[in-house]
Amino acid sequence: MASSVNPASSPSSESPPVEKGSSLWTDAFFRLKKNKLAMLGGIIVILILILCFIVAPILALTGLNANAQDLSNRFAPIGEGQGGLGTDQLGRDLLMRVLEGGQISLLVAILATLMTVTLGIIYGGIAGYVGGRIGNAMMRIVDGLLAMPFLIIVILFREIISGHVDELARFFIDVWGWSSDSVLRFANLIPLTIAIAGFGWLSMGRIVRSAAASLSQQEFVEAARSLGLSHQRILFRHILPNMLGPVIIYATLTIPSFILYEATLSFIGLGIEPPNSSWGKLIQEGANFMETNLTVLAIPAVLFSLTLFAFNFLGDGLRDALDPRASKD
Fold first, then answer.
1. Which of the residues 20, 44, 132, 321 could staple to 32 if both were Cys, CB 3.0 to 4.6 A apart?
2. What domains can be seen in the chain, in order of their start residue?
3. Does the predicted TM-score (pTM) go above 0.85?
4. Distance CA 149, CA 123 (A)
């Protein structure tokens, strides 16, 4: 009698193991880890953020003051002073000046980038999805604004809104009793941030418009339209989330540009007002004493340059990691 063989138990009938798939973001992270310069840039960015936004407030609680003057201890060398990095031309602690200056420069750049990304995504997404004459008319407005000199427009725009911001700051100080030092320090950020973001979103709008116009022709958008979904839902739930890669890349590369814009405006006296400091303001002050005391210029300049390089390396790495063509490698 022939023995029966169970087909299910036969080795030839065993199904091969199913490999678990990985998401686009997981693949991008692994590609980013292979980029040593990008990882180094990311580590430097994290360290600088920790120094400026965690270490600096802790040092301030211990009694270090960036604006406390000691004219008897001017230009103290490295190793002296409360913070160990010496003092500036007015005897102020250079470590706290640099860290609090980094707070201002980074806050202006990050807040302006967030505003830029928000405006660019909304405006460019609508222009790309609608298309036709309306979309073209919207982009011609962007082209016209891009033709204007950026820094000059930012300077004029800042001067226009700075008066209104000063009135608002006085309201919080006089009516609500807020600390004048804190209010005036951060009130300086508002005109500069709005001025930079008010014209910095134009390039983001063009990038998003091109991506939205391409995605609006994809099959998943056509399927959403056939299901009767509203245009608003299609745009904000299906098209815009699929553009996160280019948006993240551009935002990472925009932050160093805005840090540079803030430094430029502060260097020519149109940025942060004294006694508050930013990296641009510190570099401008240090340049006046570069022949007699190079330390006052070198320390903020080195930290400023290191931050720009770190953000650029990180942005380049993210661009390579999130590039869809790289996933074919």
1. 321
2. 35-55+90-323 (1.10.3720.10)
3. no
4. 21
